[in-house]
Amino acid sequence: MAERVLHNYFRSSSAYRVRIALNLKGLAYEYTPVHLNRNGGEQFAAPFAALNPQRLVPVLSERGVDISQSLAIIEYLDEQYPQHPLLPATAADRAYVRQLSLAMACDIHPLNNLRVLKYLSGPMRQADDVKQAWIAHWTKAGLDALEQELARAPQRGRFCFGDTPTMADCCLVPQLFNAQRFNIDLAPYPTLRAIDAECQKLEAFAQAHPARQPDAE
Amino acid sequence: MAERVLHNYFRSSSAYRVRIALNLKGLAYEYTPVHLNRNGGEQFAAPFAALNPQRLVPVLSERGVDISQSLAIIEYLDEQYPQHPLLPATAADRAYVRQLSLAMACDIHPLNNLRVLKYLSGPMRQADDVKQAWIAHWTKAGLDALEQELARAPQRGRFCFGDTPTMADCCLVPQLFNAQRFNIDLAPYPTLRAIDAECQKLEAFAQAHPARQPDAE
Q1: pLDDT at residue B2 tops 90
Q2: Distance between CA atoms of A27 and B99, rounded to whole angstroms?
Q3: Where in this chain does the record put each GST C-terminal domain (chains A, B) (predicted)?
């Protein structure tokens, strides 16, 4: 058993957040793929379903501790490994970075993830264009608010907060990746795109990209 | 201007979380109602829309700092006011409480909040029974996983973690309130109901209940 295992799926944007955080901190990990779309969903079978009753990736396993929920994992990594802090130094600034992160992790991503899209086309029998309108609606609502917030924020630097990447950037890059995958026009989001471009220059972000994972298709 | 203002809506379960946290810490606040369902939604108009571009309650305003996202607010309160800690002492235990909280804040609540239900019945023209099936599906998926997790957890005490309420309990009680409001059968969740019953004994939880807020209908 490796010292640190990330139960992972290349295209999961919440797993992508954690991969970025691990890379920023320079922490090596074993990549254990959990294929969300094969064999009826490997997350529903043993051993993963016992590891995380939510049946969602990612899960980080480290020294007998298993943690699910990407933001809980990132906060844990930040507390355990002080190199490259992913949260700022003051309570108000940490609140700001958490607020940005949660705006994506609560109010954009969960509405558009695989299990919700499957429910729309499965039990609800919605056509592809209705599903696409759903994705566009929630993505745009979320990105519109983020753009408005970040465009005016004195805290913003090259990244969401200041000039080094934080947890908020770990969330932003996968969220924009997702948006592009679903053909959302990013033209109305110049601030978000500028931050994304800064992130893409860093190896920690590049190596976390879905296309570069061992289970990429 | 009061020292501390909570922009609030009595029935918002994310606002309810923050009211519990403020009460547990014994922090007085001014209650500023933002009616989500009147005048086309007061959250879409000035001054609230400028305060929070996400147009979502709650927002905490304190000494010139405005924070949205309930979990960001609770973490901020916990860092600023050490009385009655809402997160445990070790990194692994904090990760566990955050994981439980995020399982509700990301994967149950955002799928069933007012704006989503309005989208289902509005642009998607779904009948009430389809909407009710949607609510039941995501609530049960979330509560099933939480019950399974908490029933087996050695960390559980009278509350989600140990014998004093944490951020996870601030999330659980509003989530169960919501589930009951939508007629979800709570019989399959004995562990969750037992924790809820312990919480209900405390004045901090009772005073935060939607029915006891100044804008309650």
Answers
A1: no
A2: 21
A3: 90-217
Question: Quick check: B134 pLDDT over 80?
Answer: yes
Q: What is the mean pLDDT of residues B201-208?
A: 98
Chain B positions touching A107 (Cβ under 8 A) are: 54, 56, 110
B9-24 pLDDT per residue, tens: 999 999 999 999 999 9
Kindly report the nearest CA distance between residue A73 and chain B, in angstroms.
7
The tens digit of pLDDT for each residue in B82-117 reads 999 999 999 999 999 999 999 999 999 999 998 999
Residue A47 in contact with residue A34, Cβ under 8 Å? no
Q: Considering just the CA atoms, what is the radius of gyration of chain A in Å? A: 17
Among A7, A54, A93, the strongest candidate for a mutation testing the B interface, having the largest count of B CBs within 10 A, is A54
Torsion over CA of A80, A81, A85 and A86, rounded to 10 degrees? -60
Residues A22-38: what's their mean pLDDT? 93
What residues contact A27, with CB distance under 8 A and at least 6 apart? A4, A77, A81
Identify which of B69, B99, A4, A193 has the alpha carbon closest to the alpha carbon of residue B60.
B69
Cβ of A73 and B95 within 8 Å?
yes
Asked if B111's CB is within 8 angstroms of A69's CB, the reply is: no
Question: Cβ A111–B107 below 8 Å, yes or no?
Answer: no
Check whether the bond before A33 is cis (ω within 30° of 0): no
Q: Smallest CA–CA separation between B44 and chain A, in Å?
A: 12
Please give the domain boundaries of chain B with CATH numbers for all domains. Answer: 4-84 (3.40.30.10), 91-204 (1.20.1050.10)
